[in-house]
């Protein structure tokens, strides 16, 4: 591992995700997530797996989640693999696409969203 990989993180083919993430890999997964928002608050983290900034924001967010008492159902979307799902989220919820992005949903509607360094567990409460 090079010096820069140690500091910034090396290339990872399949980065290990925390166990609290539910992955969005189909429109059906998205529809189920939105349906779940009628029972409890959910959040979708849209992540670009090739972007250093997105990777850093994701790691920081995961650290915050580990220390959070309030539980929210969290969904992870790989933007590079599932761009059509990201587009559907933007269309259905009226949220402009950004990456990385956290969208908080309740009762089928986006109640909060943040991107880049503004992503924090503060959006979840």
UniProtKB/TrEMBL annotation:
<dbReference type="InterPro" id="IPR022551">
    <property type="entry name" value="BrxC"/>
</dbReference>
<dbReference type="Pfam" id="PF11009">
    <property type="entry name" value="BrxC"/>
</dbReference>
<protein>
    <submittedName>
        <fullName>Bacillithiol system protein YtxJ</fullName>
    </submittedName>
</protein>
């Amino acid at each position: 591992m090079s010096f820069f990989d140690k500091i910034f993180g090396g290339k990872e083919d399949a980065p290990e995700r925390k166990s609290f993430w539910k992955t969005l890999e189909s429109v059906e997964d998205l529809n189920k997530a939105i349906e779940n928002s009628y029972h409890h608050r959910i959040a979708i983290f849209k992540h670009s797996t090739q972007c250093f900034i997105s990777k850093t924001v994701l790691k920081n967010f995961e650290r915050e989640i580990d220390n959070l008492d309030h539980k929210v159902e969290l969904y992870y979307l790989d933007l590079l693999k599932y761009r059509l799902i990201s587009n559907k989220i933007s269309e259905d919820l009226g949220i402009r696409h950004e990456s990385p992005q956290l969208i908080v949903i309740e009762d089928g509607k986006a109640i909060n969203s943040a991107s880049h360094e503004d992503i924090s567990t503060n959006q979840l409460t």
